[in-house]
Amino acid sequence: MADSYVLGWILCSVMALVALCGVVLRRQKWKGISMRTEPVKTVLTSNGECGSADASQADVISLELALLVPPSLTLSAKYGYDGRRVQVIERDLSEPDRIVGELLQPGGYLKLIELGLEDCVEEIDAQQVFGYALFKDGKHTQLSYPLEKFHSDVSGRSFHNGRFIQRMREKSASFPKYITSSLDMFYVHDILFSNVHLEQGTVTSLLEEKGIIRGVQYKTKDGRELTAFASLTIVCDGCFSNLRRSLCNPKVDIPSSFVGLVLENCHLPYSNHGHVILADPSPILFYPISSTETRCLVDVPGQKVPSIANGEMANYLKTIVAAQVPPEIYDSFVAAVDKGNIRTMPNRSMPAAPHPTPGAQLMGDAFNMRHPLTGGGMTVALSDIVVLRDLLRPLHDLNDAPMLCKYLESFYTLRKPVASTINTLAGALYKVFCASPDQARKEMRQACFDYLSLGGVFSAGPISLLSGLNPRPLSLVLHFFAVAIYSLGRLLLPFPSPKRIWIGARLISRASGIIFPIIKAEGVRQMFFPATVPAYYRAPPPVK
């Protein structure tokens, strides 16, 4: 029977993809959809220009105002290794305290190794994560990462976000300095690289000249207004970015909020695993962030959450949420609520819709966001950094901004396998995991839990996608519709009734309504047919 299910979902998925591609192509033909580069607003300084401490122009400026994954620090280390002069401007250099950005999937850890920064998860009491445990209505199943082919050190990592960021900063500042000619040089591990200058400041605007970003204007910690110039300005100022509007078309959606707690000395049912409870109305997450602390994130649908100040939140957590957590966690959960250190954060999603702009590159959460349910944000950011690093590595001169911009358009296609897989999975899983009064949605939610509980390829396939170890969008779509067909088969066998047939038809409709809009936002052509995108074949600009 399993073979018939597999054949059924393959045929269903292929037919659905063919139909979708036809619809998209017709719409593009009639609507003439295109991505146009919009001009960046010209910014003029009113109090004169003042150069940075180093009077020369940097190769790269990296702006980091609010970071969960520190793209600026990762980029600074790697571009420094590659011989670039890098200036990093951060709003605040103190250790941040956030309730997200605490889980790095195995695929993200492999990217950290590829960047030579794996020691940044050492000495911060980071915990290894080997998979997930899924709970629903008193039942549970274990989903392990498929790590058999990797070194024993390869796994997920969970930690305090602030400690991870401080390790990144230490990494950027820890290299011995040498002076050569007029440049500050470093020499580490037989690799020569230029000075990475880390500075605290708040970027107020991008400096534009004839459609090209030439640098930034920023305020220092002591209130001085300065300008810094570079051949390439990398903007990665986080989910609250005030600079991205001139570099992309932001369509931010806020489907829910996370309520964060820290449980102390809590023993999770499955050690070194993330725990996902399919609760009502939406999922609850637990994962270790140190040897003695466990993070709890309670998802609250909508943009409004109960008030913390008047006690509504504590009451909600005790009366609605506590009864749905596993018994082993209950006492620690209630104790954490009573302690009162409750924090909230809106969950944002935003598809990547860039306006390629000469002299600037958008990265991180300022560029692309997905629901944090699957913990894939850091993996996407680190993968993007590897892609951009590889594109810039063969370039000796970044001064021809228009030619560089045209060359870097390939970045948006080359990043798609990892980014679109994780983005689509995050959006689809969140909608499937949320409770719904609709019978078709209920059936699909239960079928998803039962499908993953089957084990073998039925659990290893989806978990490899979630972990970033198998970034294949087509595999994701096939597994998604396999769940739908699996649910449909359970409804119709052994004897279909008119009611069951109607629920099954609605189930397929609901499944299509969940995943197809996400795929459309990601870009059908770039996701499934990247080789047909001209930018995919862009070669580095010729050396002058």
UniProtKB/TrEMBL annotation:
Its EC number is 1.14.14.17. Pfam families: SE. Keywords: FAD, Flavoprotein, Membrane, Monooxygenase, Oxidoreductase, Transmembrane, Transmembrane helix. One of its GO terms (molecular function) is flavin adenine dinucleotide binding. Its main location: membrane. Its cofactor is FAD. The chain crosses the membrane at residues 6-25. Pathway: Terpene metabolism; lanosterol biosynthesis; lanosterol from farnesyl diphosphate: step 2/3. One of its GO terms (cellular component) is endoplasmic reticulum. InterPro entries: FAD/NAD-bd_sf, Squalene_epoxidase, Squalene_monox. Residues 229-502 form the Squalene epoxidase domain. It is found in: Membrane. GO terms for biological process: response to hormone; sterol biosynthetic process. It is a multi-pass membrane protein. Catalyzes the stereospecific oxidation of squalene to (S)-2,3-epoxysqualene, and is considered to be a rate-limiting enzyme in steroid biosynthesis. PANTHER family: SQUALENE MONOOXYGENASE (PTHR10835:SF0). Belongs to the squalene monooxygenase family. This is Squalene monooxygenase. It comes from Gossypium australe.
